[in-house]
Amino acid sequence: MRLGPILRSFPHIRPRSYPLVHRRHSSDMASVVNKTAHPFDKARFDATLNRRFFYAPAFEIYGGVAGLYDYGPPGSALQANIIDQWRKHFIIEEGMLELDTTIMTPSAVFETSGHVARFADWMVKDTKTGDVLRADHLVKNVLENRLAGDREARGLAAAPPVEDKKRKKKAGKATTLKLDDEVVKEYETILAQLDNYTGPELGELCRKHKLTNPDTDNEVGEPQQFNLMFQSSIGPTGQHKGYLRPETAQGHFLNFNRLLDYNNGRVPFASAQIGRSFRNEISPRAGLLRVREFTMAEIEHYVDPDDKSHPRFKEVRDIAIVLLDRDVQEAGSSETRVMSVGEAVDKGIIANETLGYFIVRIYLFLVNIGINPKRLRFRQHMANEMAHYATDCWDAEIHNATGWTECVGCADRAAYDLSVHSAKTGQPLVVRQALKEPIVTEKETPEWNKKNLGKLFKKDAAVITQLVEALDEPSLLKLKGELAQGSTVVKSEDGKEFALTPEVVTIERKVFKQSIREFTPNVIEPSFGLGRILYTLLEHSFWSRESDVERGVLSLPPVVAPTKVLIVPLSAREEFNPLVQEISAKLRKAGVFSRVDDSNTSIGKRYARNDELGTPFGLTIDFASIPNRTVTLRERDTTDQRIGSIDEVIATVTELVDGTIDWEEACQRLPAYDGVQAVAE
Amino acid sequence: MRLGPILRSFPHIRPRSYPLVHRRHSSDMASVVNKTAHPFDKARFDATLNRRFFYAPAFEIYGGVAGLYDYGPPGSALQANIIDQWRKHFIIEEGMLELDTTIMTPSAVFETSGHVARFADWMVKDTKTGDVLRADHLVKNVLENRLAGDREARGLAAAPPVEDKKRKKKAGKATTLKLDDEVVKEYETILAQLDNYTGPELGELCRKHKLTNPDTDNEVGEPQQFNLMFQSSIGPTGQHKGYLRPETAQGHFLNFNRLLDYNNGRVPFASAQIGRSFRNEISPRAGLLRVREFTMAEIEHYVDPDDKSHPRFKEVRDIAIVLLDRDVQEAGSSETRVMSVGEAVDKGIIANETLGYFIVRIYLFLVNIGINPKRLRFRQHMANEMAHYATDCWDAEIHNATGWTECVGCADRAAYDLSVHSAKTGQPLVVRQALKEPIVTEKETPEWNKKNLGKLFKKDAAVITQLVEALDEPSLLKLKGELAQGSTVVKSEDGKEFALTPEVVTIERKVFKQSIREFTPNVIEPSFGLGRILYTLLEHSFWSRESDVERGVLSLPPVVAPTKVLIVPLSAREEFNPLVQEISAKLRKAGVFSRVDDSNTSIGKRYARNDELGTPFGLTIDFASIPNRTVTLRERDTTDQRIGSIDEVIATVTELVDGTIDWEEACQRLPAYDGVQAVAE
C-alpha cells in the first residue's frame, strides 16, 4: 500500500480528513484488539449497534419486514457525514453536476433500459414448503458448509461463518464429513465463479450436487426468474404502470441533453446523484448488506469513446491497489495481486485511464472515511457476469464478517444507455463537437439535371437517383467514364434498365468539409451502496478494550463520527451550566458538532457509552474548571487525557476534528492531565 | 414585523445568515422591480428556471409524467442548502434526534394510522370523457373564474391568474358576466371555507351552482374518494401489501421507545427527519406546488400533555406574525391580523406555548432563507378540516402567483398517533416519570384469608373475590362495619348469596404510595414541504432589471444560493490559469463554493447568466490582475463593483457569504472600481 503519494496528489483531502498517521494508528489498534477478541464477535457488535440505535429493523413493533431498516440518531448522523465527504471528494473536487431525480418511474423507461426483461434474480422454491430462496445463495451456502465440514474432518478449522440466526440454527452447523480431494477442488472452482452461472446452470448444479434447502432438507425446483423491481401504478385510473427505480442511473441518462447544455456542450463531464433506490430482494437475510430499500450515490462520467484518457491520471498512476482480475477467477482462483493502477492500465488489465482514475478515487474515498485498506479489494467482473454491452467492470469489495461484499461498482458501460433511450424516443443524445481541423474529403458526386430527369423518366426518377447515389467510388468513376463517352445504362434490382446521358446526370469530383463531429459519449459509472459502506465501516471500527471486553469502542475517524465532542460536566449541578453553555457555543461557532451528557451516572460510564457511539473527543468540566477555567481533553482510542485552558483546548480540538493536527501534535500542545483522578475509566 | 428582537433572541442565526439589512434591501428591491414588471411574469419566470435547469419535468424525453419533476444542478444545490439551513436551525439548535426511516411501509401501519381508510381526496369524473378532476379544485377554479368575469363586467379588474396552459386555453379566460351581489357574496363565502366541505357537500355545490368540467363544459358525477397512497407489494410471493409513505411521521412514532431510551427516558424531546414522500395526486397541474413525489422535513416534538409550556417561549413571545384564525374563516372572511405570538397564546388563539414557539421558529426559518415576510401568513385549520383528535393546527402559507399555498403545517396532534399504534401492537408507547413527590393515598382494602376462602367456597371463591374487590369506598366501609359485627352477606349478579365472616375476609385501611407517573406524550408536529418552499422562494427572489427586462435576476440570499462566487477570467487564455487556480483553491479552503466561467463570451453575458442562477458575487480577473494581484468584486443585486488585493477580496467575500458583514460594510473596506470598464453590464 503506497499511501504517501496519495496525499501529495490530492492535497485537498488532507485538511478535511483524519491525519493519516492517526487513522493508521487507530486501525492498527483495532486489528490488534480484534485479534485479542478473536474471532470478531458479531453478536456483541450487532447488539451494540442495536442498543445504541445506529439502526434497527423497520416496523419493529409490528414484527418487522425483512430487508427494511431504520437509522437512528447516530446511524443517521454517520450516514450524513459519509454523504458529506462523498460530496466533497467527488462532486466538489471534480466539479460534477448534481441531480435529484424521481424514484417513481414510468414502465417505458425500464422497458428500454432492459430492467423489465432482465433485472431479475434466479429463485428456487422448496418443493414441499414453497419457501423461496435465491438460487446462487443456496449453492453458495450449501457448498461452503460442506467445505467447512470437510476442513473440520481434516482437523483444519472450525465451523464456517454464519450469516444469521436461522442459518445458525438449522444449517450453519456444518456436518463433519471428509470429501474427496477432487470434490473439494470442484466446489472451490464453482464458488470462485459463482457469479458467472446462468439460471439453468444453477439448476444443473443443484441436481448434480444434490443441493437441498438447508432449512428443511427438502429438494428445490427449477430456478425461475424473479424481477427485483417494486411495481406500482401512477394516477387515479390505475392505467399507468410505474416502478420504483432500482438505481438512480436512468435519471441521469434521461437528462443528458440538459446536462450537456448546462456544461456548455463540452465533454468530458460527470453528473452525480445521491438518493434512495429499491430492490425487492427474494429473501434478504444479511442485515444492512442486503436490503430492499437503500441509499446510493452514483456518478455518470460522459467521455469521448475515442479518447478515454484522463487529465489527472498522472496524479494517481503510482497508487497501488489490490486487484482480483477476471482471468484469475475464471481459472477458479481468488488470488489477488497488488499493482499500481498505472501498470494495470498499461497492461490492459483495467480497460482505460478514466476507469483506472475512478478506481483510485473510490479507493481513496473509502480509506479516507475509515475503511481498512487491508480489507479492500477490486474484483473484475467475469464474462457472463458483465452486461453484454459493457467494456469492463470492477467492484470494490470490502471484507466483513460474512466474507467479501460488493460495496461500489465501477463500470465502463460504453454507449449503451444513451443509445437505447435515444433509439426508443427518437431524441438524439449526442455530443456535437466543432472539429479543430475540419475533415476535408474529395469524392465523385452525381450532379442531376432534375428537370430533364423528371421529363424523361417520370415516376422512375426516384429509383434512378437512388441507384446512382448508392454506387461506390470505383463504380461512379466507371459511370463517369461512360458518360464522358456519351451515355451509360443502370440496372434496377428487378432488372429494369435505364439509359442515362450527360443531359440527365454528370459525375463531378467535389470537395467536402466536415466541421462538426457527432458522437454518443461513453459512460463510466461508479455506483456506491452507502448502507454497505456504512456497515462495513462500523465493523472495521469496532473493537473492545482488554480492560472492558463487554463494551465496544467504535474508532470512527472524526470526519465521519456522529458526534465530534462530548461535553461532560462532573455532575448536573447548576454551577457547571455557565461553562457548559460557553463551551457548547464556542464549539458551535467553530463548526464542531458536540453533545452534552449531564446524566446522573459516573464520568467513566458516560465516556464508555460514548466510546460505543464513536465520539472521538471528550471535554470534562470539574470543580477545578470553575476557578481555573481549565478543562481536560480525552482521546477515545488511547483514553489519554490532557489539560489546558478552555480556549486552548477548544482550538486544539477544532484542529483535531478538521484533521489539521493529529493526537501526537495535540499532546505537544497540552500537558498530560495528572491532577486528581476525576475520571475513572 | 418586529424583526429586531429575533436576532437578539437567536444569536446563532446571525453569523450564518445573510445580514438582515442586506436581505431586506434585496427583497425590497425585488418588490420594487416586480412592481415595474407588474404583473409578475410567470411565463418568463418558468422559462428561466427551465432553461437554467433548476428543475424540469421528469422523463421529459418520454413525454413526461404529470406531477414528477427532476432537479438539475442549481435546483439540487438550492435544495441541499435549504436542507442544510433547516438542519442547523432545527436539529442542531434544538438538539433534535435525527432519523432516517424507510419509505416502503407494510399495510398494517397505515391501517392503524387511518391512512388506508381516510387519506383520500374527493374526485369527480367528467360524465362524458371520463376525465378525473379533484372536486375541491373544480369548485375553486370555476367559482374564481365566475368572480373574475363579474369583476370584469363591473369594470374592476382583468382576468384571473391562470395555473397552466391547458386552463389558459380552455377555462382560464373568464366570461365577462355580472353576477347578483348575493351570488358574489355566496361564492366568496364558499371559497373562504373551501377546505371545510365534505365530499357530498362538494357534490351538492356542483349541482346547486351548475359547476361543469371547465375543459369540456360537461357535467361531472358524484364525488368519490380516491386514496392518495401508492400501493405495491413486498417480497417474491406478492402476498405482503405495502404502501409508499405519504409522510415521514409514522417512522418517528414507531421508533418512539428507542428514541425515548436514546434521550435517557426524558421528555420533552423531538425527533426530526428529512426524506422523500409520495402522494398519488389525482390531477397534478401546478408545477412544483402539487407533485406526486416530494422531499419533506418533519419534526415530532413529544411533550407532557399536562405541561405544554416551552422553556424558550420567552425568547420569542414578542415576535409578531400574520394570523388568519379559524373564526374569521368560518365567518367567510380572509382578513388577517398581525399579533405577537405571546398575545395569541395568552388569548387562546394559538392553543399552547409549544405550538406558538414552533410557529415562530418556522417563521424565522422561512424569512432567514429568503421568503418575503410580507407574503407569509399562518392560517388556522377550521373545524372540519382538522383531524378529530388534533388540538390545534396552523399552516404557514406563502403567497405566490397561484395564490396562497400551504408550505408548512404545524399541528398539535395530542396523543393520537402513539395511542393507536400502541393499542394495535400491544406495545406500550409511554413515558414513565419518577414523581418528585410520591402521591400518597389511603383506602379501605379487603384482606383475604385465601385458605379459608378456598375451603369454604371452592369454585365460588373467585366470584366472591371479584364481587368484593369491585365495591366502592362507602360499600367497603359498610361491609367493614358488618364484619366487625361478626358477618355479612354479598350477593352475586345471578342472585346467589354468600355469607362472609372475618375468618375469610377483613377490611383494612391501607396507605398506597405511587412514585411513577405513566403517560402517553402529546405530539406537536411541524411538517415542511421543501419543494413548495423552494418554489415560492424562487418566485420571491425573481425580478428583472429595467435595463434588461428579458433576463431575470434571482436575488437568493448567499446562505442558500447554489453557487456563492463566480470566478470570471477576462478570457480563457492560459495566462489567467494560475490566478484562477489560486483563487479557486483559497475559496475552497475558506469553505466558499465557487465556479469558474471561462466560456467564450463577454463578461457581461457571463454575469447575466449567473444572475439568473442567483450567484451573489463575482470575481473578475483581468490583465491588471496579473501584475497588480488585484481582482474586482461584483455584487449581484446592485451590480456594484469594488476592487482590492486578491487576499483582501477573498477575506471580504468569505465574510459576506458567512453573513458576518453586509455589502455596505464590504464597500467600506474595498474602494469602488473606477478603472477601465472591463465589465460591460
TrEMBL record, chains A, B:
InterPro entries: aa-tRNA-synt_IIb, aa-tRNA-synth_II, aa-tRNA-synth_II/BPL/LPL, Anticodon-bd, Anticodon-bd_dom_sf, Gly-tRNA_synthase/POLG2, GlyRS-like_core, tRNA-synt_gly. Its EC number is 6.1.1.14. It holds the Pfam family tRNA-synt_2b. It is an enzyme of class 6 (ligase). GO terms for molecular function: ATP binding; glycine-tRNA ligase activity; transferase activity. Coiled coil: none annotated. Homodimer. It is found in: Cytoplasm. It catalyses: 2 ATP + H(+) = P(1),P(4)-bis(5'-adenosyl) tetraphosphate + diphosphate. This is glycine--tRNA ligase. Residues 201-562 form the Aminoacyl-transfer RNA synthetases class-II family profile domain. One of its GO terms (cellular component) is mitochondrion. GO terms for biological process: mitochondrial glycyl-tRNA aminoacylation. Keywords: Aminoacyl-tRNA synthetase, ATP-binding, Cytoplasm, Ligase, Nucleotide-binding, Protein biosynthesis, Transferase.
